[in-house]
Design a protein that fits this description.
Length: 126
């Protein structure tokens, strides 16, 4: 009976240490570079609604004055550049953009409906 317990204890100890050696044999993989690449490719989309303070359709740049900040945005796609040709200084716009290589790049530019325009269109009932 005592010899049987010794054999079981030895077997359990051997299995425990062999399991630890397998866990440590795996080389550590660097997780930092993979997360950096993921952060670079995943751009956070942002939106701003405000008045156009400057626009250059040929250069593909637009500056929008929001509630708390001015945002200088550039356009790279043909559709956004075409939308910039229709925008004038003083227009209210909604711009969706993302940060790419340190600069703001527009993904869409649309005219914003001002609150004054929507209240004027409502018919008055008496």
């Amino acid at each position: 009976m005592k010899s049987m317990i010794k054999v079981l204890v030895i077997a359990l100890v051997t299995l425990t240490f062999s399991g630890l050696s397998f866990a440590q044999a795996k080389p550590a993989t660097p997780a930092a570079p993979a997360t950096e690449k993921k952060a670079e490719t995943t751009a956070k989309a942002s939106r701003i609604r405000g008045e156009v303070t400057s626009v250059d359709a040929k250069a593909g740049t637009l500056t929008v004055k929001g509630k708390d900040k001015d945002v200088k945005i550039s356009a790279e796609s043909k559709s956004v550049k075409a939308a910039l040709e229709k925008v004038k200084v003083g227009d209210m716009v909604r711009v969706s953009y993302s940060e790419k290589d340190g600069k703001m790049v527009a993904t869409s530019v649309k005219p914003a409906k001002s609150k004054a325009a929507t209240t004027e269109k409502k018919p008055e009932t008496k």
